[in-house]
Specification:
The protein has helices spanning 4-7, 9-25, 36-70, 80-103, 105-111, 136-144, 149-164, 176-181, 185-191, 209-214, 237-254, 258-266. The protein is an all-alpha fold. The protein has one domain. It is globular and about 55 Å long. InterPro entries: Fatty_acid_hydroxylase, Sterol_desaturase/TMEM195. The chain crosses the membrane at residues 54-73, 80-97, 138-166. Residues 83-216 form the Fatty acid hydroxylase domain. This is Sterol desaturase family protein.
């Protein structure tokens, strides 16, 4: 099954071009805009993620199908309630996936790719990981609920398409009720910030309600500084894709104790062992 998001790629590229042109004809000194090498890296990472992701989807479908077969009941795709459950279940799974990938370093090594640009525009949405296998456990419970695998894959694509439009500085805050319930460009700009107040905030996919419920919400206030707390200063796609895995490996090899090795793998990004007393 080809994910629905693949069919949206031509539209993504066209909208990136339109937004880039908007900065040429309607410049804004308060916004970071585009830079050729940065955009090329984002597009390369997006293309690479699709090459890796297509065969991985075959494995994911088999895994979903296996769990779905064992589910005690199967929900009907013809019911509106099934689709409503799917929306909330998928979005909660995305929240759990996203939060874990910011708080567990070996998972962050995969997700850090998406945060590696110091700019924030529609091309940033395409800067995706080349190691998608870390996502599977977070969606298997949906199959266990009796949601058909094809519906899970479709909703994942819908969520990704929605999130593409969040990666822009050209849209200010939206109508207050929308900002209250849905993830918006303003909320997601916070998520991409390296400002101390913005770190590990606003993990939502389509909805922002999970962040409000679980205490990870932060409204946009001070100007966002995009990128990482320690930026990687490279446009090489291979280094962007795997630099944090290499850093994790160096720290694990250098650690003297097994508990420190475990900390470098499963602790949060930036974790370091306490000195022995």
């Amino acid at each position: 099954m080809i994910p629905a998001v693949v069919y949206a790629i031509p539209a993504f590229v066209l909208l990136v071009a339109v937004e880039a042109l908007s900065y040429r004809f309607l410049p804004d000194d308060e916004e970071y805009g585009y830079e050729v090498r940065d955009t090329a890296t984002s597009l390369s990472m997006g293309a690479g993620s699709q090459v890796v992701g297509l065969p991985w989807k075959v494995f994911a479908v088999l895994a979903y199908a296996g769990v779905y077969t064992l589910a005690p009941w199967h929900l009907s795709p013809s019911s509106a309630w099934t689709w409503l459950l799917l929306l909330f279940a998928d979005d909660l799974a995305y929240y759990a996936f996203h939060r874990a990938h910011h708080r567990v370093r070996v998972l962050w090594a995969s997700h850090v790719v998406h945060h590696s640009s110091v700019r924030y525009n529609l091309s940033t949405a395409l800067r995706q990981s080349w190691t998608p296998m870390t996502s599977l456990p977070f969606w298997l419970p949906l199959a266990a609920l009796g949601l058909p695998p094809w519906m899970i894959l479709l909703q994942q694509s819908i969520s990704l398409i929605y999130q593409f439009f969040l990666h822009t500085e050209r849209v200010d805050r939206l109508w207050r009720p929308v900002e209250l319930v849905f993830n918006t460009p303003s909320h997601h700009r916070v998520h991409h910030g390296s400002n101390q107040v913005y770190l590990d905030r606003n993990y939502g996919g389509i909805l922002i309600v999970w962040d409000r419920l679980f205490g990870s919400f932060e409204p946009e206030g001070e100007r966002v500084v995009y990128g990482l707390t320690k930026n990687i200063t490279t446009h090489n796609p291979l280094r962007v894709a795997f630099h944090e895995y290499a850093a994790v490996w160096r720290d694990v090899r250098a650690a003297a104790r097994w508990r420190d090795r475990a900390g470098h793998l499963f602790g949060p990004p930036g974790w370091s062992p306490k000195p022995e007393t």
